[in-house]
């Protein structure tokens, strides 16, 4: 009798699991977002059941032997160029993807898209673009344009550490911001006159963790950064909360359960909430936890991450739905009419919303700056009849646009900005050690 009852219980559990999996499949069919994939293992008889199609043409790529699912068939592998989307070409079990980035490029996640898996593109390995190379390149351009005065005299020169890598905190004319060791913008910025104690330590650490723990990221409470990229003074990891050192994130005093968070001396009822999590995190954790649990069972659910959160727990500047991407404030409310259709993949990939956010901030110095529909800074800005060029952060890098270039001012600025950002292509590591640049007092940062 007990054996029969146990068998019935096991059968009921199996049926419940089957029904739940079927419900997820239905969800994927009804929604334009979720896609469910069940992992398959290759057995030794698998290829005997496969009929390989002949490859008659493979222009722009190369034929790789045994490159298909489980290595059964040859496959034509397309070679993707810089800027081309590469996320949709994941390798099947035992095989290789049908498209790969060309030699010298790698498939990288654009950090502006956070955990959005649709934002990977082929890009130059930025780990090879060292800070000292960028410094030499920019000073070289300044020297070459000294007489023509093409680039601004106070052009931003990066701050490098002793290893030639980018320091976490970088400051331009009006603002300071956080970058990773390769100079890529990450979360965290502040107006320059308020950034004396800014370290970006939290932003650096959490950005690395976000990349290393993609599966478990935001499935439970984790550390918060301040808007400037430092550690918040109140931290919770899982169900444990404590006061933290803003510079290091180290524990100060006692550790308590989240239910007693109000007892911590660093708890501020005007700044913090009893549940610690902010609204964006609450929404994201629901879907991330579901995705993580099913991934542990071998079921992949893609597309449920409908919101993007910053490292301080608030809504990220760029939010994308099924057919549109829009710029929002920290509460997730749309800013003006800064939005684009998702049909334009290049615009979507380059969309940062930095201009829209800066114009919307309380202590912003950018209220008179012009923004594109993407919320990015318009490359050329004009005030009182004088026009100049700004970069992706709104920082001036050309303080005068010649009259004969004003008809196509944006194109003129974009061309100069592209050259400014191409240090790795025109200035190699060997040249850094041999090239001596003549500097002028006003070049130094």
Overview of the structural elements:
The protein has helices spanning 2-30, 131-144, 201-212, 279-296, 345-350, 354-360, 409-420, 423-426, 429-434; strands at 35-38, 61-64, 75-80, 99-101, 105-109, 120-124, 169-171, 175-179, 185-191, 234-237, 240-244, 251-257, 299-302, 318-320, 324-328, 334-341, 380-383, 386-390, 396-398. The protein has 445 residues and is an alpha+beta fold. Among the domains are: 63-124, no CATH class; 132-274, no CATH class. The chain has a 3-stranded mixed sheet with strand order 2-3-4, with no helix packed on it. A 3-stranded antiparallel sheet has the order 7-8-9, covered by helices on one side. A 3-stranded antiparallel sheet has the order 10-11-12, with no helix packed on it. The longest helix is centred in the first third of the chain and has 29 residues, at 2-30. It is globular and about 75 Å long. 29% of the residues are buried.
Q: How many distinct beta strands?
A: 19
Main beta sheet: 3 strands, mixed
The end-to-end span amounts to 83 Å
In round numbers, the mean pLDDT is 80
Uncertain ranges = 1-40, 426-445
**Strand content of the residues, in percent?**
15-25%
- Alpha-beta classification: alpha+beta
Number of alpha- plus pi-helical segments? 9
Major sheet strand order: 2-3-4
Percent in helix: 10-25%
Main location: secreted
Signal peptide: 1-28
GO biological process, one term: cell-matrix adhesion
Subcellular location: Secreted
């Amino acid at each position: 009798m007990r054996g029969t009852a146990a068998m019935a219980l096991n059968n009921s559990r199996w049926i419940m699991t089957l029904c739940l999996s079927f419900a997820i499949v239905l969800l994927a069919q009804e929604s334009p977002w979720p896609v469910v994939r069940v992992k398959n293992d290759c057995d030794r008889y698998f290829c005997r059941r496969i009929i390989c199609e002949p490859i008659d043409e493979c222009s722009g790529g190369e034929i790789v032997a045994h490159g298909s699912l489980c290595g059964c068939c040859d496959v034509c592998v397309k070679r993707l160029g810089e800027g081309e989307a590469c996320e949709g070409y994941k390798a099947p079990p035992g095989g290789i993807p049908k498209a790969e980035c060309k030699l010298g490029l790698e498939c990288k996640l654009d950090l502006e898209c956070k955990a959005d898996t649709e934002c990977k593109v082929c890009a130059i390995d930025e780990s090879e673009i060292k800070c000292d190379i960028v410094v030499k390149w920019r000073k070289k351009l300044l020297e070459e344009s000294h007489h023509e005065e093409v680039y601004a005299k106070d052009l931003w020169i990066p701050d490098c550490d002793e290893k030639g890598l980018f320091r976490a905190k970088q400051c331009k004319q009006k603002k300071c911001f956080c970058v990773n060791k390769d100079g890529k913008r990450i979360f965290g910025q502040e107006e320059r006159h308020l950034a004396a104690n800014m370290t970006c330590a939290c932003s650096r650490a959490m950005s690395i963790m976000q990349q290393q723990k993609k599966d478990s990221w935001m499935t439970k409470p984790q550390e918060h950064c301040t808007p400037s990229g430092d550690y918040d003074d109140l931290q919770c990891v899982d169900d444990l909360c404590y006061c933290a050192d803003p510079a290091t994130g180290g524990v100060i005093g006692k550790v308590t359960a989240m239910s007693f968070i109000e007892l911590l001396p660093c708890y501020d009822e005007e700044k913090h909430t009893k549940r610690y999590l902010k609204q964006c995190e609450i929404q994201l954790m629901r879907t991330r936890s579901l995705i993580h649990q099913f991934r542990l069972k071998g079921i992949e659910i893609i597309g449920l991450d409908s919101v993007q959160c910053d490292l301080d727990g608030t809504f990220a500047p760029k939010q994308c739905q099924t057919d549109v991407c829009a710029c929002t404030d920290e509460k997730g409310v749309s800013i003006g009419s800064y939005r684009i259709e998702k049909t334009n993949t290049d615009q979507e990939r380059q969309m940062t919303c930095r201009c829209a956010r800066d114009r919307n901030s309380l202590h912003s110095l950018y209220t008179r700056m012009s923004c594109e529909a993407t919320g990015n800074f318009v490359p050329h800005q004009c005030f009182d009849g004088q026009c100049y060029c700004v970069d992706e952060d709104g920082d001036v890098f050309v303080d005068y646009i010649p009259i004969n270039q004003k008809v196509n001012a944006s194109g003129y600025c974009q061309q100069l900005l592209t050259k400014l950002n191409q240090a790795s292509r025109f200035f190699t590591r060997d040249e850094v050690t041999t090239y001596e640049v003549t500097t002028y007092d006003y070049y130094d940062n």
